[in-house]
Design a protein that fits this description.
The protein is α/β, with parallel strands linked by helices. It has eleven helices and eleven strands. The longest helix has 18 residues.
Length: 272
């Protein structure tokens, strides 16, 4: 049995779309009532460890979608509870969606690296780590033009090796359906061509006039963002602006897992 967690999130929903018709696939979510009809669903809430023993019963492969939008201690507690429950339930293989290696400077990298280490140190689990790059959809959101048609995101001349979320979902499915071939492997799943504010603007028929990090921090704080979200977002802009997320400069693992070239990020951003 293959259990996918987080199927009502953006990535999990795309994974489930690709797996829903298969025998032996079970959908896990905090809101199983929202799982598409016809797919067996189980309650999975990493914040409520008591949900995990029944959810993981009989599971051979667990595709564990990270539950990352929170402070580090909260995320680490979630992921720690999920891995411990997987060990206790006798799950054979955990496939974990992590963060690309070039994201080490990002404020949310720590919880991903903790989770990777916890998996590596497991005495019982086989594992595969999918080090996902930042989504093209995420770049589109953080570099969206204002009503005046100007993108003011503080990206400077920096670029991001953004990746289509659907490609990451497809790669995750390919690994989760044949996990033995990927045991003990970490894959760097980033876009093949990095894009920056100027290219996003061109693709959208907008103009690019990058702002400063300080102004952005003030605007994000004033927008009602939660405390932990402010450094997450500002740190992401800074890491892109200063050239840390432009990709490894070599062909990554994504094309190999997909069996085809990844979809260009600008196509996703322009809605083509
Ligand atoms: N690479 C990127 O650009 C990027 C951007 C944003 C986030 N992320 C990370 O990648 C993950 C998946 O991305 P996404 O686009 O699907 O994010 P999303 O749409 O914000 O979905 C959040 C995900 O977290 C799960 N989740 C939250 N709290 C949980 C809990 N207590 N127990 C179990 N699952 C929980 C949700 O599952 P249910 O709602 O189904 O329970 C859902 O799958 C995120 O959670 C985050 O860690 C990556």
């Amino acid at each position: 049995m293959l259990l996918v967690t987080g199927v009502n999130g953006g990535l999990g929903a795309l994974v489930l779309e690709r797996l829903a018709a298969r025998e032996g696939v079970v959908a896990g979510s905090r809101t199983p009532a929202r799982v598409p009809a016809g797919v067996p669903a189980r309650l999975v809430d990493f914040d409520r460890p008591e949900t995990l023993a029944p959810a993981f019963e009989g599971v051979a492969t667990l595709l564990m979608i990270s539950a990352g939008a929170a402070e580090d201690d909260v995320v680490i507690a979630r992921h720690g509870a999920a891995i411990e429950a997987a060990e206790r339930a006798g799950v054979g293989h955990v496939v974990y969606t992590s963060l690309s290696g070039d994201g080490d400077h990002l404020p949310y990298a720590l919880a991903h690296r903790w989770t990777e280490r916890r998996l590596r140190e497991s005495a019982t689990l086989r594992w595969t780590v999918l080090r996902n790059g930042l989504y093209a959809e995420f770049l589109a959101a953080i570099a969206a033009p204002g009503p005046d048609g100007v993108i003011t995101a503080p990206l400077g001349d920096g670029r991001l090796a953004a990746v289509a979320r659907a490609d990451l979902a497809e790669a995750a499915v390919n690994v989760a359906l044949a996990p033995a071939a990927h045991a003990g492997r970490s894959y760097e799943l980033v876009g093949e061509r990095a894009v920056g504010g100027a290219e996003v603007a061109e693709a959208l028929g907008a103009r690019y006039r990058p702002g400063a990090l300080g102004e952005t921090r003030q605007a994000v704080t004033a927008s009602g963002a939660r405390d932990f979200q402010v450094p997450m977002l500002v740190g992401t802009y800074s890491a892109i602006a200063h050239g840390f997320l432009a990709g490894p400069g070599v062909r990554g693992d994504l094309a190999a897992l997909l069996g085809r070239p990844p979809r260009p990020a600008l196509e996703v951003i322009a809605g083509r």
